[in-house]
UniProtKB/TrEMBL annotation, chain A:
It comes from Aquitalea magnusonii. This is Iron(III) transport system permease protein. Its main location: membrane. PANTHER family: POLYGALACTURONAN_RHAMNOGALACTURONAN TRANSPORT SYSTEM PERMEASE PROTEIN YTEP, PROTEIN LPLB. Keywords: Membrane, Transmembrane, Transmembrane helix, Transport. One of its GO terms (biological process) is transmembrane transport. InterPro entries: AminoethylPonate_ABC_perm-1 (IPR017664), MetI-like (IPR000515), MetI-like_sf (IPR035906). GO terms for cellular component: plasma membrane. Pfam families: BPD_transp_1. The chain crosses the membrane at residues 21-48, 81-103, 115-137, 152-178, 199-223, 253-273, 305-328, 359-380, 392-414, 426-445, 490-510, 530-553. It is found in: Cell membrane. Belongs to the binding-protein-dependent transport system permease family. It comes from the Bacteria. The lineage of its organism: Bacteria, Pseudomonadati, Pseudomonadota, Betaproteobacteria, Neisseriales.
UniProtKB/TrEMBL annotation, chain B:
It comes from Aquitalea magnusonii. InterPro entries: AAA+_ATPase, ABC_SmlMolc_Importer, ABC_transporter-like_ATP-bd, ABC_transporter-like_CS, AminoethylPonate_ABC_PhnT2, Mo/tungstate-bd_C_term_dom, P-loop_NTPase, Transp-assoc_OB_typ2. Coiled coil: none annotated. Residues 12-241 form the ABC transporter domain. GO terms for biological process: quaternary ammonium group transport. This is Iron(III) transport system ATP-binding protein.
Amino acid sequence: MLSAVLRWRPRGGQTGIAGEARIASLLLWALVAVLLLGLGLPLLFIFAKAVQDGDGGFVGLVNFAQVLQSPGLMRASSNSLQLGLTVTALVLPLAFAFAWALLRSRLWGRGLWRQIGLSPLLAPSLMPAISLVYLFGNQGLLKDWLHGGNIYGFWGVVLGELFYTFPHALLIIMTALSAADARLYEAGRVLGAGPLRQFLTITLPGVRYGLVSAGLVVFTLVLTDFGVPKVVGGDFNVLAVEAFKQVIGQQNFPRGAVVGLLLLLPAILSCLVERRMARRQQAALTARAQPFAPAPSWLRDACALLLLLAISLLLLALLGVGVAASFIKYWPYNLDFTLAHYQFDTVDGGGWSAYVNSLQLATATAVLGSLLVFVGACVCEKLPGMALGRSLLRFLAMLPMAVPGLVLGLGYVFFFNHPANPLHGWYGSLGLMVLCCIAHFYTTAHLTAATALKQLDGEFEAVAASLKVPFWVTWWRVSLPVCLPALVDVARFLFVSAMTTLSALIFIMTPEHSLAAVSIITMDDAGDTAAAAAMATLVVLSSAGLSLLLSLLERLLGRRNQRWRKPG
Amino acid sequence: MKPAEHGLSDHLTMRGLSRRFGSFTALDAVSLSIRKGEFVCLLGPSGCGKTTLLRLIAGLDLPDAGSIALQARDITRAAPAQRDYGIVFQSYALFPNLSVADNIAYGLKPRHERQRHRLRVRELLDMVGLPGAEDKYPAQLSGGQQQRVALARALATSPGLLLLDEPLSALDARVRDKLREELKGLQQRLGVTTLMVTHDQEEALAIADRVVVMNAGRIEQIGTPAEIYRQPCSRFVAEFVGEANWLPATACGAHEVRVGNHALRLQQPLPPAPALQLFLRPEDVIIKPRWENAPNTVLARVDNISFGGALTRIRLLPEGMPGQVLYAEVCPGMLDRQPLVPGEIVPVELPAARLLAFAGDLPC
Ligand SMILES: Nc1ncnc2c1ncn2[C@@H]1O[C@H](COP(=O)(O)OP(=O)(O)OP(=O)(O)O)[C@@H](O)[C@H]1O
Ligand SMILES: [Mg+2]
């Protein structure tokens, strides 16, 4: 099959120089193979499993019917839906207010506020849940505020998910807000529109696509998140936890597959909506826009400051309480400092070895993932011809966006844990987890790299070819150095994501090969909340530490590159 | 072996090249030969397929039909690296992270012979008029300087063919004129066969040994700048290149036409169509010192005189041709008469040797 592929010569491509063309197509098809293995086949196996019985016989839609008739699962579905809608409705105004205060005011230290707004990205979704337990749990500091109520349940999960999804919504809305066209506001002022009218007729319509797309992302994240409901959900059962129970708890693979497919629905739906919108938005953005610069205004800046303070306080509380509690002897009765919770000797979950595993996993994902993503983006953007292969690669690169981690993890269980799979022995190994992480976060990384590559002059390869220099030399000498800042971003994103993710990996890790994020769940389940907080703190510190390190590296690189980046 | 002999002097030969994008035909059976050492300009309006043709020659795209031969070797489907050419793009495409020296030495082989490359780079920089710029980066250079570096890079490997895609169009007028002359001088010194794409007719006429005028994917005319300017063979070329007066006319005889209520003679035979357009360059309109009853001479009222440096441009309203405007360009020193004043009536000759007739209605 591969030889047929090599012989296949597209029209419009280059033929002839046997070596170079062959290496190009080999590279392309190797990348396609990796993504098929890490993404395509596992997904196919979910579909296959959903129409099989426990022994692998074909049963059609029986599993679907069973799920639809099971009251527990249906309640979990409606719970999930209710949760998703509530969180989306709450997080959008918050994130919009934060973004507006950041981008439309002239406050000092906006870089710092931005970092605070994005800080939840550094933590696993379990962190806010643990903080909530410390604040409002049975021994919570502020338990009295609930007047005998209980944080375990719907509102606890909502609070945790708010924290977890806030930075995702913030990023999208900030992008939308910063694309504002100053000329529209000038026109509005000239026509006598007041601030409120300007806000309603210019600002809001300008970000409505951003708001919708942020809403879709948040909704999907909430539906497929698993950490928060697991820790503070109590009796409030959701689909994501149900899928885990079915597969890992009861080993009921077919039913797990059906639940997984149910979870795939909102993601696919949002992808379709996004694509439609992206097409329409492009038309809206064709005009040459002038960047917007806010005029000075005391009142507005004061409002903005209050907004930022209030929201930041909430975010920092949900992050900081967990961190603080991990250093405290016995919350809330004995507040002395201790490192005892970091010893992990007496608790389950793997302790320090789990943390080291996570570090290894994150490092390997960042290094290998960046490499793979860069080469993949180069093949997509910079190689001539091979139209079919390149569109296949592009499709596979965009696919992970529509696949929640939980679903991907299920696919890995079904595919790699299949006794007939020759890669069966790989199951539970670090290598497979690295593959899973790269596949899970591929889309964002690919888009970052591809955007950077697209900004390069399209004729570089043509010039290189005329000088008889093979394409990989040009990638190495020109594309890579020029795109290095974007690649550092990709590496940072992959590291932090691999460090904090839970949803996909929880299905494929084995107890001997535990991971930090998973061990947080284990410890919390066993009632060792302090140890769980300590592990979550370790994750946050590692993510923050690496981000800082990469920022320094970037600055260093920036100084070296200044000579060619800056004129003069 | 006659064809081979003929092919010897032809450096680059294209036969029947076609390229379609979907149902749109960007190139339609284009055939063209370029002799060794010749400077050829591809001239045409935007979207006529100039870049498409250049990309086919460069091997960056493949034709749907036709063949390309470089020094009698068929390269129609060869990879770019198997052809022998240097290329300069409108965007220059200089590698931003490499110094000028590294940019120019990018294609020099083998890579480790740094010393030899240094000498070659210095030689090239001297040649393009940028001595001592080795350690600068592209972002530190002006547009014209970047263009010179791109040219040096394209010439570094001493290619037999130089392809230029609108190399001067991103520069301002003054730099463009200067670089245009330098480019021509360099090309003549090196004797490198050159194909340049441009949509600027003035540039094409000034620089090329031969001009190829293209329109909508087809070649309209191939000829020296003088031929293209003096003897445009189609109405498109006549309209696209230079300025002209257009006079609607009707045929009445093999060499006679009527314009308004005048009869004019043409030296060349008329195209077989009842409705014609006469073509006459403004500088070919002769303003006579006094009236004499000669053929092709009419009276015209001077409407407006505008000073234009070396040439004075006169707007004339010929009598007996209602609504018709005739522009004349005259050299003031050569005008053998009193200075013209607006409102004056002057005799004007439309020389039979210079009048061309094309079929069709009003030009657009
Ligand atoms: N890859 C492509 N796909 C579809 N159409 C194309 C493609 N490349 C060129 N065309 C079309 O072919 C026609 C000729 O394009 P080409 O770039 O050769 O024009 P040009 O003569 O170089 O014009 P310009 O002076 O604007 O550069 C244009 O109408 C263009 O839209
Ligand atoms: Mg062009």
